[in-house]
Amino acid sequence: MTFDWLTFAFQIANVLILLAILRHVLFRPVAAMIAERQRVLTASLGAAEARARAAETEAAAAAAETLRQRAALLEEARQEAETLRRRLLAEARDAAAATARAAEAEAARTVEAAGAETLRRARDLALSIVGRALAAQPVPPDAAGYARRLSEALAHLPPDRRAALASGAGLRLAAPAPLAQVPEVAGLPPLPVETDPALIAGLELRSANGVLHNSLAHDIDRIAEALTHER
């Protein structure tokens, strides 16, 4: 049997012609259609991204305006309270600094044996004491605020203790500094006022029969004792 090269050549030519026809009739239109769909899809995605960016910009602008208005209102309220708060914070910072210095001195004596952990705990204790003491102060932290808290504390005393304190000789108020106006304490007549800077801030009721504590210094001592027991 002989190989027919002419027939083989015709078959090769037929295949090439068929491929050319398929490329022209099928491959090119399909490729064009795919390219067009890709272009439309890309354009749609671009438009959607642009709309999303515009919506985000608009929402961010609205949120910024809302935050600006809220900040303005908060700032106005803060300024009204700042004057009353400033004096107590200054005194509290002094007390915190003194407490921190004492804690650091104590930690320094034992740091060689206990290491850095002892110093950290001492500082945390001082900050916790002052933070809790400040949180317990009346609002506003002025003489009138402490007078209200003193009235509430007096009302919660057992009747016999309240009567004994009020009937004791030398019944008076104690304040850390001279008062421009002596506040009233519920259930008691106007009382003389003595100055006791050790109170730091507050207003206490004193007589020969005892003391009704109501000061920042007493709060710091009480919280320090409680935290020391906790630890």
Structural key phrases:
231 residues, four-stranded mixed β-sheet, alpha+beta, 6% strand
By DSSP (H or I, 4+ residues per run), the number of helices equals 5
Helix content: over 70%
Based on CA atoms alone, the radius of gyration comes out at 42 Å
* Straight-line N-to-C gap: 108 Å
Task: Determine the structural class based on helices, strands and strand pairing.
Answer: alpha+beta
Q: Say what oligomer this is.
A: single chain
Write the layout of secondary structure elements.
Elements: H1 5-114, H2 116-135, H3 143-155, H4 159-167, E1 172-175, E2 193-195, E3 204-207, E4 210-212, H5 216-230
Parallel strand pairs: 1-2
Antiparallel strand pairs: 1-3, 3-4
Q: How would you describe the overall organization of this protein?
A:
Helices cover 72% and strands 6% of the residues. Helix 1 (5-114) crosses helix 2 and helix 2 (116-135) packs across helix 5. Strands 2-1-3-4 form a four-stranded mixed β-sheet, covered by helices on one side. The protein has helices spanning 5-114, 116-135, 143-155, 159-167, 216-230, and strands at residues 172-175, 193-195, 204-207, 210-212. The protein is α+β, with helices and mostly antiparallel strands.
How would you concisely characterize the structure shown here?
This protein has helices spanning 5-114, 116-135, 143-155, 159-167, 216-230, and strands spanning 172-175, 193-195, 204-207, 210-212. With 231 residues, the protein is an alpha+beta fold. Helix 2 (116-135) crosses helix 5 (216-230).
